[in-house]
Amino acid sequence: MIDLPVAPSPSERQRKPDWLRVKLPIGPEYKKVRALVDEYKLHTICQSGNCPNMGECWGAGTATFMILGNVCTRSCSFCAVKTGRPTEYDTDEPRRVAEAIDLMQVKHAVLTSVNRDELKDRGAEIWYQTVRAIKERTPQTTIETLIPDVRANWEALDRMIEGGQEVVSHNMETVRDLYRKVRPQGNYARSLEELRRIKAAGKRTKTGFMVGLGETEDQVEQLLDDLLQVGVDVVTIGQYLQPTAMHLAVDSFVTPDTFAHYKALGLSKGFDYVESGPLVRSSYHAEKHI
């Protein structure tokens, strides 16, 4: 293990480091995307997840759509998405998402969703129909689907990933030893198994995780090794940012040099692509991951 630069903990400083500052969303393309999202009554993880790259991505005319509503059945300690009992199940949503993507002239679309544990199929049919609707309306559009934990409902997983998308992603979020704290309703081994099955189905496979939650370098390396074992192709690594005072506090602000080290480490281990940086999120530069 090499010595890495250590950033001050949040309690030791008055504000975020300079490398975590982002510009406010502005510009005509951003306003155009925002208008389309509002007009078609669509949800985006850009808004619901308080993504720091929303201005950059929307300004370029892209967005990550969140299907199956904006209320999640899980209560993960890091996530800004609302938790509760979802009531939304809109069978017309696939058509509206496909139409909006067509109007936005999106070349590479990213779809994600809340967890819908109350549904027997975990929302798999809406997933399938949305991918098919996009492919039928704009067959030139490539698609990444960032799918939730299906809680070992492997029939639901099969349906989610058989619509014709090019990339299937499922986020690990954190290292094994922090799972109970960060994802109390998740399971480390189960998520690895989900990724293994995605790869076995012949899909380009992707995952993402956060740092700054109290993990060690050895734990990060163990996670990377576990991901290689199940055949993951692409990994994204970003800084955890506390969305509200009710969520987990940031343990440390990881330096850009450390992110660069993790990228080099991942590439040396054999991943096809490693996106690693303070502001990296799952769908950031997703068009490069095909």
TrEMBL record:
Enzyme Commission number(s) of this protein: 2.8.1.8
Biological process terms in GO annotation: protein lipoylation
Binding site residues for [4Fe-4S] cluster 2: 72, 76, 79
Catalytic activity reported: [[Fe-S] cluster scaffold protein carrying a second [4Fe-4S](2+) cluster] + N(6)-octanoyl-L-lysyl-[protein] + 2 oxidized [2Fe-2S]-[ferredoxin] + 2 S-adenosyl-L-methionine + 4 H(+) = [[Fe-S] cluster scaffold protein] + N(6)-[(R)-dihydrolipoyl]-L-lysyl-[protein] + 4 Fe(3+) + 2 hydrogen sulfide + 2 5'-deoxyadenosine + 2 L-methionine + 2 reduced [2Fe-2S]-[ferredoxin]
Cofactor note: Binds 2 [4Fe-4S] clusters per subunit. One cluster is coordinated with 3 cysteines and an exchangeable S-adenosyl-L-methionine.
Molecular-function GO term, any one: lipoate synthase activity
Stored CDD domains: Radical_SAM
Domain Radical SAM core intervals: 58-272
Keywords associated with the record: 4Fe-4S, Cytoplasm, Iron, Iron-sulfur, Metal-binding, S-adenosyl-L-methionine, Transferase
Keyword check for Hydrolase: no
Pathway given in the UniProt record: Protein modification; protein lipoylation via endogenous pathway; protein N(6)-(lipoyl)lysine from octanoyl-[acyl-carrier-protein]: step 2/2
Compartment(s) where it occurs, according to its Swiss-Prot or TrEMBL record: Cytoplasm
Pfam families, A to Z: LIAS_N, Radical_SAM
Binding site for [4Fe-4S] cluster 1: 46, 51, 57, 283
Protein name: Lipoyl synthase
Annotated Gene Ontology cellular component terms: cytoplasm
Cofactors: [4Fe-4S] cluster
Gene assigned in the entry: lipA
Keyword Iron-sulfur in annotation: yes
InterPro entries per record: Aldolase_TIM, Elp3/MiaA/NifB-like_rSAM, LIAS_N, Lipoyl_synth, rSAM, rSAM_sf
Family listed: Belongs to the radical SAM superfamily. Lipoyl synthase family.
Record-linked PROSITE patterns: RADICAL_SAM
Domain of life the protein comes from: Bacteria
